[in-house]
Specification:
The protein is α/β, with parallel strands linked by helices and 326 residues long. The chain has twelve helices and 15 strands. Strands 3, 4, 5, 6, 7, 14 and 15 form a seven-stranded mixed β-sheet that branches. It has a six-stranded parallel β-sheet with strand order 10-9-8-11-12-13, with helices on both faces. It has a two-stranded antiparallel sheet with strand order 1-2. Strand 9, helix 6 and strand 10 form a beta-alpha-beta unit. The longest helix has 16 residues. The two termini are 12 Å apart.
């Protein structure tokens, strides 16, 4: 089978190589899956660089979430077991963790429903306790993680302000449902948020960027607001001033979604059931900006790493258009 593999750490476009390899062999409690679509996530770039919290042995295949087909023909969403990641024609995954793919979503959309939307759901509902009528500020609102938070925020009844960079991303954020959009390249984020909220600030801030985005969030978060620390796609990990959080009465809330797999796996299933219901109602629908052929996967991962994309890029193996089973 074909699989993209990383033989040395570095930038994805430089270190990923399309190889012909044997199919992975499932171990105890695992299933062999035929990949229908593999969603690209920022952690895939970090894996290539050797900067992710998990460092699989070289060579490995990146790709942390897929829509795939089981040997008995079921369509499922899975997180492949590294080092055999999703940018391949076949993967193995823990059988107990397989989730049914919603019938209302195609393969590419189903592949993108999992990590980004689960992160958004746990962040907004379990960690920040977002309430209807509150104001949600979403950084990188036109990106894969941010777009999910926008849709989930609207589904929860919040007023959503999106922060993006550039006119094209402003358009995308508006189409996603943002009530207001701030272009960080031309607008003052802090002043804009205060103006849009009548001086109150944002009740919840969803920050997958870090760095300067976090610093500005702290200046425009509301009394008893919550800043959700999702990740550091901007590259810089901020050092928050805790005295500032004290005098302004706001919370800094961390979210590592992967911990729920170990600490509370039943919550993962409950979340998926809710996401499936929201998808059936048309309330959430992953924004797929490109369906990428297998041959172009490395350049697609690099573009996600560079932050030049909107929505999700999803890789479709050459066999994905067919109806054959394993």
């Amino acid at each position: 089978m074909q699989a993209w593999r990383v033989h040395r750490n570095g930038e994805p476009g430089e270190v990923m190589r399309l190889d012909e390899v044997d199919r992975p062999v499932p171990g105890d409690g695992q299933s062999l899956l035929k990949v229908l679509a593999a969603d690209i996530n920022f952690p895939d770039a970090l894996l290539c660089r050797g900067q992710y919290q998990v460092r699989p042995p070289l060579p490995f295949t990146p790709g942390v979430e897929v829509c795939a087909e089981t040997e008995d023909g079921r369509r499922v969403i899975a997180t492949p077991a590294l080092p055999h990641g999703g940018l391949a024609e076949y993967v193995v995954a823990d059988t107990a963790s397989l989730l049914p793919a919603p019938d209302t979503l195609d393969d590419a959309e189903a592949a993108a429903l999992h990590i980004g939307y689960q992160t958004g759901w746990f962040g907004l509902h379990r960690r920040a306790r977002l309430q209807a009528g509150e104001t949600l500020l979403v950084h990188a609102a036109a990106g894969g993680v941010g777009s999910a938070a926008v849709q989930l925020g609207k589904a929860a009844g919040a007023t959503v302000i999106g922060v993006v960079g550039g006119a094209e991303k402003v358009r995308v954020a508006r189409e996603l449902g943002c009530d207001q959009v701030i272009d960080r390249r031309t607008d003052d984020i802090v002043a804009s948020v205060k103006e849009l909220t009548g001086g109150r600030g944002a009740d919840v801030v969803y920050d997958p960027v870090g760095g300067d985005a976090y610093a500005k969030s702290a200046k425009c978060v509301a009394f008893e607001g919550r800043i959700l620390v999702i990740g550091f796609a901007g590259g810089a990990i901020p050092s928050p001033a805790l005295n500032h959080a004290l005098v302004k009465n706001y919370s800094i809330v961390g979210l590592h979604w992967g911990l729920y797999n170990r600490k509370d796996p039943a919550a993962i299933l409950r979340c998926h059931q809710e996401l499936t219901e929201l998808a059936a109602k048309g309330v959430v629908k992953p924004l797929i900006s490109e369906r990428v052929p297998m041959a172009d996967a490395a350049s697609a991962v690099q573009r996600v790493a560079d932050g030049t994309t909107t929505g999700r890029l999803v890789v479709l193996p050459s066999h994905a258009s067919g109806a054959s089973t394993i």
